[in-house]
Amino acid sequence: MANSAQESIQISDDEVFRRKLLMDGDGMGDERRLTLLLRSFANWCDNKYDSEEQIILGYEGLITSLENCELLMSKSHQAQLANKREIQNYEELECQIKRKIAEMQESILKKKEELKEAKKIREQKQKYDALAKIIIKLPDRKETEIKLKALNEEIEDLAESKKQLESKLETRHKELRVLLSAAASLKETLKEEESSTMME
């Protein structure tokens, strides 16, 4: 029965090496536990003169140690998976942060353009307000048209007055020429009469 128990727990060298690598991943004493397990297994195999009860107890102890090692190996494997998930989460978080930074940079550029446009609009509004103040001070169109009409009428009156004055002036010139001609004739007549008187 001891031989059958020993045969049932025989493990190949490759399997032992594989489990050794799996259990020695985190450096938390797994190598030492595996060494103790292998040493216990070797001692159990060498105890040929033990009773069947001692062999069974040794077998059960080895199974318990093996289960503990497998449990630790499973925990180590789960820790590795958790680390991988954590690394993946960090990588995803890094991608999200980079994307957010890119979005913020794009938003900043957009806000700068909006600010530039707002400044331009404000400057134009200030110019429009200044122009509106000037326009408000000017008379309205109806009032301007009335004043313009009155001014045109005044110009027409002045033109008519000028025409009349020019006509009167022309008449006075004609009268003056007639008067000068008459004065010259009278002077000539007086000279002739004076000459006749002196001859007598």
Give a verbal description of the structure.
This protein has 200 residues and is mainly alpha-helical. α3 (30-46) runs antiparallel to α4. The protein has 5 helices and no strands. Helices cover 90% and strands 0% of the residues. It starts with a helix and ends with a helix.
* Contiguous uncertain segments of 5+ residues: 1-11, 23-27
Shape: rod-shaped
What is the ordering of alpha helices and beta strands? Answer: HHHHH
How does the major sheet shape up?
none
Number of strands: 0
Overall average pLDDT: 77
N→C terminal distance: 209 Å
Please work out how many helical segments DSSP would assign.
5
Radius of gyration based on Cα positions: 66 Å
Please state roughly what percent of the residues sit in beta strands, choosing from under 5%, 5-15%, 15-25%, 25-35%, 35-45% or over 45%.
under 5%
Class of secondary structure makeup: mainly alpha
Helix content: over 70%
Structure described in brief:
The protein has helices at residues 2-8, 13-23, 30-46, 52-137, 141-199. With 200 residues, it is mainly alpha-helical.
Highlighted features:
5 helices, nucleus, single chain, 200 residues, THOC7/Mft1, mainly alpha, disordered N terminus, coiled coil, 0% strand
